[in-house]
Amino acid sequence: MHLLRKIVNQDEVSSADLASFIEGVVGGQFSQVQAGAVLAALAVRGIDEEVLFGVVQALYRLCAIDYGPCDAIDTCGTGGSGKLKYNVSSAVAIALWAMGNRVAKHGNRSASGKLGSADVFFLSGWPQDISPENCISLFEGVGFGFLFAPFFFPPMKAFAQVRKELGIRTVFNLAGPLANPFKVKNQIIGVSSPALLDMFVNVLRRLGRSGLVFSSEDGLDEFHPFSHLQVKVVKDGQVDSLDLSPEDVVDKKLLNKLHKRDCFPSSVEKAKEEFLAFLQGKECLGFRVLVAMNASLALFLLGKASSIRDGFLMTMEFLGDRGVEKRWKELKRNLLSS
């Protein structure tokens, strides 16, 4: 297999090579053994910008719809820390929409048995059988959509079994957040290592998007009160770097009230309970701060806040007024009538 030999020999792999491989597996030209060998070899060799861009391009060719570019934002991150966390990116997506922004949240179920975005959306009443076409109609009506990846990329079932049997993270875990089916113009993407920041920003730039990519120094794909955050921002093709401490954004008195047990769940059930409480305006302080810290990055990117700190204060005030609860009830009424 030509591509596998290239990877093993450390030869340059082009985006066209990856696109041809993915289309070959989907079309049945390559076996599951060959598919697994390529994915594992890439994981060992390491993913570079050209490979990641090639996979994203291939995914778009397999997408069930041709929609966009769309003037909206996505908050989908890569995961990959291996730690049990709240699904902050989904809560942030809902908060941003409730605050008046158009949001197209791309996501899937958790493959690790923890809590993926689909898990919390379906738990919260999002229909599990909504078609891509109906999702577009809903989005155009209310400015929000949850884009369940398997419905938008059905040919990727060809990789499902081999990915499960490999049991490792593959290039698809990195490409997924970049392949939003609505081709959103704006993204915030949390990644699990600062080493990934430049690669993601460069792919966003090649896709013509504005984006803010970030990683905490302790290896989480979110901004939280117990670690510094490294950030890359791409806007109008220009890239800037930021280094944020929690104190830059959150008042020190508030930070002193928080403990790790307030910001990280003790179990999957606790994480589910807190997400539902968030939709009812009853979330704990730690969860509210997490949502506000990460939403602040999006508000800054969108130009809705003059600084990340201002974005945090805006979100905290909105959540304190139970703004999410009111808007989520309206959205569920729209879902029931659609």
Task: Please name the defining characteristics of this protein.
globular; Transferase, Pyrimidine Nucleoside Phosphorylase, Chain A, domain 3; two-stranded parallel sheet; 338 residues; alpha/beta; 2 domains; 5-stranded mixed beta sheet; Pyrimidine Nucleoside Phosphorylase, Chain A, domain 2; 51% helix
What is the CATH level 1 assignment of the largest domain? Answer: Alpha Beta
Q: Could you give the count of β-strands?
A: 7
Which superfamily, in CATH terms, is the homologous superfamily of the largest domain?
Answer: Nucleoside phosphorylase/phosphoribosyltransferase catalytic domain
The radius of gyration computed from the alpha-carbon positions, rounded to a whole number of angstroms, is 19 Å
Enter the CATH topology name of the largest domain. Pyrimidine Nucleoside Phosphorylase, Chain A, domain 2
Main beta sheet: strand number and arrangement?
Answer: 5 strands, mixed
- CATH architecture label of the largest domain: 3-Layer(aba) Sandwich
Low-confidence residue ranges:
none
Strand order of the largest sheet: 1-4-5-6-7
What is the succession of H and E elements?
A: HHHHEHEHHEHHHEHEEEHHHHHHH
SS summary, helix count = 18
- End-to-end C-alpha gap: 48 Å
What overall form do the CA principal axes indicate?
A: globular
> What number is the mean pLDDT?
94
Q: Percent of residues in helical segments?
A: 40-55%
